């Protein structure tokens, strides 16, 4: 189709603002999907996506729309992931478009991820079309939210489209706005091929299938193609588009969105953000913005039944085929046996991978407490990277430890400012700025929404920060974060000793000011979780060679004097001494079985 009648756009929104539902209505109204084949959240193909109400994996769909001017347009929708963990994937999906629908819930207004995605789109110079969704709700406030969009982002009132994705209100107006406001692609069909990969997945028959947007040139035939960043080369097996199912085409023209089947066997060779070009006539330079997706959160995954270790290995190998951002390597733990150390983009990514392993592959798993990556400068000037507390070098060999810091944006009603500040400063947060998104006079007292910006150590927001934030603000606050930099800190490793033996899976790296408290809390919790033995079991928390906390699990005691009725005291003494000797021997050779709940205690150190 002629480039002037192509429109490439995506939908950006905060979680649960109706992005996937709006995509359903666009597919339905344009007749791309028949009513018989229509399903809720059609582009969200995983059960987990439907249950959690978020988009985990980006999808694309080509729609044909006849506008009011009588011309037929090709609309390419790229449905972006909807969570902060997938920011890089969102940025590449945005880079494949000329415009975006900014969907805002008319009852909730601007949220933290709304602003984060708006800034991403603005940096890429996309044309934004603001959509006030869910106007059919009884508590919707489109006037207040439109005023908020006008003041915070700078939209004009006449730019905004009131809609309800659920019942279809406003969808025709959205389609007309896409045609009228979003500019067509500007690529050169005669230039060397240049296509952006914005997603990829693995197909058993076609190998890695790359989702692409063609910026210059065209894709056709069987001429060898090359990836400009990784250097990989391949012969294309098939070109096509999404309707939303895959449909083969003889070629992909300049400006179009579709897929190319590469025949590659490893999705890591076909990375999101890379540029495809002709091997024989390559483009002069790659498209900007590429970077390798880097894990930010690390955790150990172990099968609760050691017989499932091989099943876990095979399941991870299959998941990695469709998710190049997941990394894993074998590791073993004295307490947990054999498992894998895995790297994830964020906590949601970790949760999704864990649930998929259990649901799709029938595994029963134990996941250790997540940690971040630390940069450790040794006394011999060597730098090592540590993502597992058990691997931290001896303190005598460590000069400095640097930890990652994140920049966070919290949006909350003004009545919760105090609670949010207490929470963040309690996590070593550093205040940067506060901005009122709406005037106090325009809303009820305490309801004006405020943006709070902080720098916080990444490790402090990993485990339960989001839950505490939601709890302290009655669920009203929203959070967005991004990795900022590494900073040196006074960090120490807290070891947990059970019966004098260090348990590597219970070790943790924490700030020296928190070490005593966290050590005391952890051994106290373990005392209640580890079953009593026939001998006393000491529980100790240690930093280096110094014990900072101790608890004792008292022994179960058998009354060996129960059958002694009278007689000489020496007989009773002999029985008691024999029992004491037996307990000493058991303590020397006995094993303490640590239940799974004990390893989860590390996740709950901050709970009251």
Report on the structure:
The structure is a single chain. With 608 residues, the protein is an alpha+beta fold. It has 5 domains: 179 residues, Rossmann fold; 85 residues, Translation factors (Elongation Factor Tu (Ef-tu), domain 3); 71 residues, Alpha-Beta Plaits; 105 residues, Alpha-Beta Plaits (2-Layer Sandwich), CATH 3.30.70; 90 residues, Alpha-Beta Plaits (2-Layer Sandwich), CATH 3.30.70. The protein is 25% helix and 32% strand. It has 13 helices and 31 strands. It has an 8-stranded antiparallel β-sheet with strand order 11-10-16-7-8-15-12-13. Strands 2-3-1-4-5-6 form a 6-stranded mixed β-sheet, with helices on both faces. Strands 21, 22, 23, 24, 25 and 26 form a 6-stranded antiparallel β-sheet that branches. A hairpin with a 3-residue loop joins strand 7 and strand 8. The radius of gyration is 29 Å and the shape is globular. The termini are far apart. The mean pLDDT is 83.
Short description:
The chain has 608 residues and is an alpha+beta fold. Helix content is 25%, strand content 32%. An eight-stranded antiparallel β-sheet has the order 11-10-16-7-8-15-12-13. A six-stranded mixed β-sheet has the order 2-3-1-4-5-6, with helices on both faces. Strands 21, 22, 23, 24, 25 and 26 form a six-stranded antiparallel β-sheet that branches.
Which descriptors would you attach to this protein?
single chain; 608 residues; alpha+beta; Rossmann fold; Elongation Factor Tu (Ef-tu), domain 3; Alpha-Beta Plaits; 8-stranded antiparallel sheet; 6-stranded mixed sheet; globular
């Amino acid at each position: 189709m002629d480039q002037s009648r192509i429109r490439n756009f995506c939908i950006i929104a905060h979680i649960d603002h109706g992005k996937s539902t709006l995509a359903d209505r666009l597919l339905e109204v344009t007749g791309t999907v028949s009513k018989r084949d229509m399903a809720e959240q059609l582009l969200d193909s995983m059960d987990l996506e439907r249950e959690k109400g978020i988009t985990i994996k980006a999808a694309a769909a080509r729609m044909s729309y006849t506008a009011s001017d009588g011309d037929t347009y090709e609309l390419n929708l790229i449905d972006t992931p909807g969570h902060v963990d997938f920011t890089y994937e969102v940025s590449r999906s945005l880079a494949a478009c000329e415009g975006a629908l900014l969907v805002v819930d008319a009852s909730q207004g601007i949220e933290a991820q709304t602003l984060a995605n708006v800034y991403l789109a603005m940096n890429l110079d996309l044309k934004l079309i603001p959509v006030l969704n869910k106007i059919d709700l009884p508590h919707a406030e489109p006037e207040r939210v439109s005023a908020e969009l006008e003041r915070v982002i700078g939209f004009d009132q006449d730019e905004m489209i009131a809609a309800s994705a659920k019942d279809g209100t406003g969808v025709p107006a959205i389609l007309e706005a896409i045609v009228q406001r979003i500019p067509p692609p500007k690529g050169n069909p005669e230039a060397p091929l240049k296509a952006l990969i914005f997603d990829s997945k693995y197909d058993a028959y076609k190998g890695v299938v790359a989702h692409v947007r063609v910026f210059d040139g065209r894709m056709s035939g069987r001429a060898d193609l090359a990836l400009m960043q990784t250097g990989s080369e391949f012969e294309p097996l098939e070109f096509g588009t999404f309707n939303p199912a895959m449909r083969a085409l003889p070629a992909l023209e300049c400006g179009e969105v579709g897929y190319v089947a590469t025949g590659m066997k490893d999705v890591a060779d076909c990375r999101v953000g890379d540029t495809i070009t002709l091997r024989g006539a390559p483009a002069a330079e790659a498209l900007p913005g590429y970077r390798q997706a880097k894990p930010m959160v690390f955790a150990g995954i172990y099968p609760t039944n050691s017989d499932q270790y091989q099943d876990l290995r095979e399941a991870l190998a299959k998941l990695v085929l469709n998710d190049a951002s997941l990394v894993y390597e074998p590791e073993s733990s004295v307490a947990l046996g054999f498992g894998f150390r895995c790297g994830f983009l964020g906590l949601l990514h970790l949760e999704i991978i864990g649930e998929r392993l259990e649901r799709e592959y029938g595994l029963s798993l134990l996941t250790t407490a997540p940690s971040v990556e630390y940069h450790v400068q040794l006394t011999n000037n060597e730098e090592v990277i540590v993502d597992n507390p058990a691997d931290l070098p001896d303190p005598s060999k460590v000069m400095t430890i640097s930890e990652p810091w994140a920049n966070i944006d919290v949006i909350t009603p003004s009545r919760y400012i105090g609670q949010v500040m207490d929470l963040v400063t309690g996590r070593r947060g550093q205040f940067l700025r506060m901005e009122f998104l709406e005037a106090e006079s325009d809303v009820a007292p305490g309801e004006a929404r405020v943006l709070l910006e902080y720098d916080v150590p990444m490790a402090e927001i990993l485990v339960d920060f989001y839950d505490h934030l939601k709890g302290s603000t009655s669920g009203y606050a929203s959070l967005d974060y991004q990795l900022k930099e590494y900073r040196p800190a006074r960090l120490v490793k807290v070891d947990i000793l059970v019966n004098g033996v260090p348990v590597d899976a219970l070790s943790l790296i924490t700030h020296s000011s928190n070490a005593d408290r966290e050590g005391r809390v952890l051994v106290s919790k373990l005392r209640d979780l580890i079953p009593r033995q026939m001998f006393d079991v000491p529980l100790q928390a240690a930093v280096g060679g110094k014990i900072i906390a101790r608890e004792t699990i008292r022994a179960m005691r058998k009354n060996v004097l129960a059958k002694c009725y009278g007689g000489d005291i020496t007989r009773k003494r002999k029985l008691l001494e024999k029992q004491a000797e037996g307990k000493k021997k058991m303590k020397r050779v006995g094993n303490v079985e640590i239940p799974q709940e004990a390893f989860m205690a590390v996740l709950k150190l901050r709970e009251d």
